[in-house]
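Protein: Methionine--tRNA ligase
Species: Candidatus Allofournierella pullicola
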Amino acid sequence: MNEKNTYYITTPIYYPSDKLHIGHSYTTVACDALARFKRMQGKKVMFLTGTDEHGQKIQDKAAAAGVTPKQYVDNIVEGAGGVKDLWKLMNISYDRFIRTTDDYHIASCQKIFQKLYDQGDIYKSVYKGHYCKPCESFWTDSQLKDGKCPDCGGDVYEAEEEAYFFKTGKYADRLLKYYEDHPAFIQPETRKNEMIAFINQGLQDTCVSRTSVSWGIPVPFDPKHTMYVWVDALSNYISALGYGNDQYNDYDAFWPADLHMVGKEILRFHTILWPAMLMALDLPLPERVFGHGWLLLDGGKMSKSKGNVVDPAVLCERYSVDAIRYFLLREIPFGNDGVFSNEALIARINSDLANDLGNLLSRTVAMAEKYFGGTLPAARAAGEFDDDLIKTVSEMPAKVAACMDDLLIPQALQEVFKAIQRANKYIDETAPWALAKDEANRDRLAMVLYNLCEALRFATVLLAPFLPDTADKMAEQLGLSAADRAWDGLRFGGKTDYTVHKGDALFPRIDAAKELAELAAAHEAQVKAAQEKAAAAEKAAAAEKAAAPAPAAAENIEHQPEVSFDDFCKVELRVAQVLTCETLPESKKLLKMTLFDGERERTILSGIAKWYKPEDLIGRKVGIVANLAPRPMMKGKYVSEGMVMAADMPDGGASVVFFPDDVLPGSAIH
Ligand code: MSP
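Structure follows.
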């Protein structure tokens, strides 16, 4: 059987609600190393990453920043220091970057949603849950924390919302059968068992639309609904290849994906919902989904809300991109959680990169220059210890490749470093400085240094996918051509001549005690500065408040009896767009409007004719009381179906509440 010559690998698409942190870099760097490794092995690789840009959180962040959601995500994704800049800095060699706000992706999602609806896999129903008003989020029983909102800790109340559902449950048996027939589909193995247990509990259908979130892809046949995250997000893996759009034409070449790499908390969506969607679309399933662990800090997952994020750009600046890539790939057992700490990072840099790798290169190159002026002579004599070194080095490529196939990334690096350590030991065993003392040992000395150069050439080739900059620096010092660096040319003795040039130390050794003290001091200074800033802001706000004139207030405020929260929620306040508006010959007070309320057109008569002309209102978005019982007016000639919200003005006039253009008709007002 011909082995497939393509490799399609994906990272999750990231929420650009804030700047990305080192935890996000972890997944991306791992995928990058795999993509580079496969490319080196001659595969045609498609490495996809991108951003997942819709949803309430982004809408809220944008509103807080006073910009539109699109402006907000544009800045985080494309702006200076944003997602794309970070991936450039970290040498991420993605082939394609998808943004879920890209037109072609929106077109694909709408086609997919429509198809699933047309064939009965998506249906309309009612979403029941616990609603948290400030967070505008529905929660299930199991998501609540002590009966409260898991995000803000506030009260929730029972609520219902019309929504579309995808029939995930229908695919439960087929999913279980698929796992059984494709044992490598879900990895690691322990996580597969969690997925099976989840299905066996009884698989519920999945809510795939919202009416309360306007920043999303509209459901094509019912635009007051937007697609609720997962259909929009998961479809990226095929829309980015051109499925359902004309932007790209790579679906046939690359689908099904070879690997979806995801964090453990989203493995369920990738191994249950996504395959069920693909089954419904009658498309093949990805070969493998790998759920990796989290990078923890202070004992918990990094998150902005916990204030414990680590900025990857700052780390790269301080320690070099490759030091950070190495730490992420080597330190954390792939599949398990791992802890980020400055101590662990510095220890790794010093022991593996400065000591083992850096010293091997600098000692070898320095000795080749010192004893042979940089060019190794052709006359060489084999001797004791050579065979063992050659064996270890020669076996390294196959072992590293096997680890990479099994997604054992730290083990792959360990194999390289085993050979590096073996080569360092070889220097101690052969003691070139002692050989150099006697001219009779010249051929032997040449062989020792030649063997070391070959070992370093292997290390250069095999480290390139993990540490691209370092591999380039090594190649430069060793005088390697592109051909010398080819995966196919990895045969010990494959390069016969060496002319080396000494360069800078690959990784200068860090004085750990001094560095940690400096970091602690910098952290303290940061905390102090933040506290001082907060105190100054508080003081300024208090001063501003004291200086401000007392706000003017309406006179004779009329109070209503207090109502319960549940009673308040019974009043349905919604945004509607004024389609037509006219004065009535029989009334000086009333304007008659037709409005689109997100679902239908309705007529409302409003007593604002003295203050507004029809052209002031046509096309505008206004607030209405939508569930007010219809009221006959003008002796039954008209029926007003609701009320337009307006504030009383001091002169007895009215000021209508208008909403910005990007608020959709039908949006709830709270
Ligand atoms: N947008 C969704 C994914 C949709 S994929 C169709 C999402 N985005 S996310 O930005 O919240 O997370 C993206 C990835 O980053 C996830 O795989 C998540 O596990 C990973 N990480 C976020 N924090 C992490 C750590 N602290 N450590 C390791 N990975 C972490 O989920």
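Remarks: The mean pLDDT is 92.
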